[in-house]
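call fold(seq) -> tokens
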Amino acid sequence: MLSFWVSFFCIGIFVATAAYLIARKVKLMAIVDTIWTAGLGISALVYHTVLGLESIRSWAVLLVIFLWSFRLSFHLYRDRVFSGHDDPRYKALAEHWGARSARNFYFLFLAQIIFIALFLFPVSIAMQNPQPLWAWTDTLAVLIGISAMLGEWIADRQLANFRANPKNKGGVCKDRLWRYSRHPNYFFEWLHWFAYLAFSMGSSLVGFALVGPIAMFIFLRFLTGVPYAEMSSLKSRGEAYRQYQSSTNAFFPWIPRDKTA
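ret:
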């Protein structure tokens, strides 16, 4: 396994560096978002192959993480890379970092390798669960993983359809799933990581599988997700978004406080 991780970090650094140079050339730092999503799916496939895992559970884990990787990578590529318009978060970071932005963005690209390793950890625990028989928790895991992906896809499509309507320019999407949470896509992304916890039930390492949902919640709610999205929305939508904030939960879906919102 040591050889896997040595190869993982060496190849990861090379890929992250190449992606960074491409991003600098095309002036599109949003490319960084696709590194860890695509990289995690590919890394899980390589990990499964290198260890020669053959249980039905290990194949189910691989299928779920690969579907997650493909869907999210395709969404991010189409929404943030193919469009050619850089994410407002990275424009804000470039302005904030100033002359240090080139160096800091390179470190951000390299950090994706750490993120992949962090989230590959609970996936690897689930893949190597020694329990010999398929259990009801494995069925639950598949349901959680697929349902969460479906919920995130629906939320993404609802927001994309809202933004595609010229009449909604400058407005706030607060219908359907977005009526109950300001970031339902982030909520479902967080929920997805409980699938690998369920897959790990029965393993002596099941507690370590909690790193997935815990780390994802911290990143989305307090670091890379909600704070930057809220800042961008307040800047572009102003008072309309402040009213949305006062009526709707930021992360966990709940009934709006203002029934007329």
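Residues 131-261 form one domain.
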